[in-house]
Amino acid sequence: MNIIESLQSKNDKESYQLLLQLEMQASKSNVLYGYFDEFIALLNHKKSLVRTRGFRLVCSQAQWDTENKLEKNLDILLCMLDDEKPTAVRQCLAALHTVILYKPDLSEKIEVKLNTMDLSKYKDSMISLIKRDMEELRKHCCDSRL
């Protein structure tokens, strides 16, 4: 089974462990950059968990993105911040910190998306958590432009 198939496996526990291993690899080398387009394709999956894995892995490639694929696909990525699952949104917000760290030129566009997010579809308990995550990311966006 290849990486992309494994990320879509019905065994969520194994897929999550693979995600963590791949994120660790991505923090150390560009060995996964060749999978960038496949990770982007996961954003179209019917399962929110798989879309989130794809999002996180795309973001983890930021420091190796010599071809500006993140910038070219940013609109697609930012659509994940409208996911119906609030936990997916929170994970995506966290993953964007890596993008801002290595691609500070994208922070303004990310901040525009943060300012237009509609949180009304989530429970109040989740809205407060998402708002906190958004504020942390906004601060990171501002810091990256200094």
Descriptive notes:
The protein has eight helices and no strands. The model has no long low-confidence stretch (mean pLDDT 94). It has 146 residues and is mainly alpha-helical. The protein has a single domain, classed as Serine Threonine Protein Phosphatase 5, Tetratricopeptide repeat (Alpha Horseshoe), CATH 1.25.40. The relative contact order is 0.11.
In short:
By secondary structure, the chain is mostly helical.
If you average the pLDDT, what whole number results? 94
Report the sheet with the most strands, covering strand number, pairing sense and barrel closure: none
Can you count the beta strands? 0
CATH fold name, please? Serine Threonine Protein Phosphatase 5, Tetratricopeptide repeat
Jot down its keywords:
Serine Threonine Protein Phosphatase 5, Tetratricopeptide repeat; single chain; globular; 146 residues; mainly alpha
Layout of secondary structure:
Blueprint: H1 3-7, H2 12-28, H3 36-41, H4 48-59, H5 69-78, H6 86-102, H7 107-116, H8 124-144
